[in-house]
Each structure stands twice: as C-alpha cells, then as structure tokens.
Design a protein that fits this description.
With 299 residues, this protein is mainly α. It has five helices and no strands. The two termini are 142 Å apart.
Length: 299
Amino acid sequence: MTSIYDQLHQQILDRNARETDPFWSIHASNHDLVAEVEELQSKYEELKRIGMMHPSGKGSADGAAPEQDMANRESAALQNEVRLREQLEKLQEELSSTEQMRDEEKTKVAETTKGLEEARMLNAKKDKEISILEEERDTLQRGMDHLTGKVTDAEARMSLAEQQCVGLKDSIRLMQEENATVAKSKDDLEARFLTEKTKLSQSIAELMDTVDALKKEVSTLHTFRQKHDERTRWLDDARIIQIKKAKDENDDGGTASSTASSTAAAASVAPSAAAKTVQAHTKEATSARSVGFFSSIWS
C-alpha cells in the first residue's frame, strides 16, 4: 500500500513537470533574443567601424546625396539601436523576472526536496517503527499461538483428568463393592473356619480316641503274639519230644508206631472257622496251626 509520503513525492514531481517545461521555452526564447541582440550589436559595431573608416570628406566627391544617405543610415541605426536596447532591457527584465522566479522555484524545490527528504527520513523511521511493531506483533502472535496451544493442551489434559477421575470413582466404587464382597466372604470363611475347626477338633478327638483304642488293640496283639510265640515254642518242644518218643516207639515195634501215627493224625483236625477275630494291621496279623491234642485251643 502506497504511503502518504510517496503520494506527496509523486505530486511534487507532477507539479515540477507541469511548471518546468514553460520555463524551458522562455529560457530558450531569451537565449535566442540575446543571440539576436548580440548579432545586431556586432552588425552595428561593424557599420560604425565602416563609417569611421569612410569619413565625410569622401562626400565632397560624391555630392550631398551620399551624406544624406549616411545620415539616414545613422539615424536608422540609432533608432534600431534604441529599439534593440529597449527590447534588450525588456528581455533582461523578463530574464531577471524569470531568473527570480526560477530562484524562487529552486528555493521552493529545495524546500520541497528538504521536506521530501525529511518526509523520507520520517517515512523510513516510521517504516522501521512499523517493522519493529510488526515483529513485536509477530512475536506476540507466536506467543498467543503458543499460549493457545498450551490452553488447548491444558483443556485436553483437564478433560482426560476428568475422564480418569470418573474412571477412578467407578474403580473406587467397584473396589468398595469388591471389598464388601471380600469382607462378606471373609466373614463367611471365618464362620466356616470356626465350624470346620470345631468339626476338626471333634474329628481329632475322635481320631485320638481311635488311636488310643488302636494302641490298646496293638498292645493286646503284642501280648497275644508273645503268648503265641511262647505257645509255639512250647508246642515245638512238645512236638520234638513226641517225635523222639515216636522214634523210640518205632524202634521198639512197627505196630506201635503206626498206631501212634494214626492216633496223632486223627487228633490234629483243622478248624472249620475262626473261633475269635481280632482287628489289627497286616504286619501285626499272626496265624497258628496246632497239631495233636492242642487243636482244641485254636478251634
């Protein structure tokens, strides 16, 4: 956009273009008039020099006509000189007026040029200030854009924080519900634990009673086994004695031996069923078989 100083400068140039061209034509006409006056002046000087070289004594030979002609020429030359002097004075006055106008115009042009230069300097200063203001405006605009970005970012973060807060509230509510459920489950587990503990205590008491009973049965079995071992040894000894006795009897006679053997075979009869059953561990179980007359004890 064109500033006011550029418009003022253009108007001054237009005015100078309008007013300077007529002055150039006047100056040219004055120059032509001065040249014509100088030419007439030179012609006058030449005629005067010729008149001085041909004095009036020559007219005595030629008569009165040449003298009259010379006088007429001098009169015409004087009139022409007067006219030329008047024209020259007029032209000098016009030239002086023109030069005065030119001087005034030059003064005005100088003043205008000075004002224009001052206006240019002021315009440059204003342009510099405008440039500085534009830079400050750009800086402020960048700062404003930066702050706008920060505000937008803060709003986005605030919205995200609100969403997170809502989610956190929901999480807290769910956790409270879960805590209530866990607390209820804990109470149920505690009640169940107490019930199970009571049942376990009863079971342990029953197991202890069972263990005591089993210990008693095991002690009974140990006692019974010891008695059985003693009886087995006693039976083995009796058997050995019987075998020796039978051998001795065999040595005495075959008939007596067969009789004794048949008697022993008839005497050792296997029991048809157990007369008594004792509950015990498999390692504690003991079986025995009697021979001879002791079979009645185990039957």
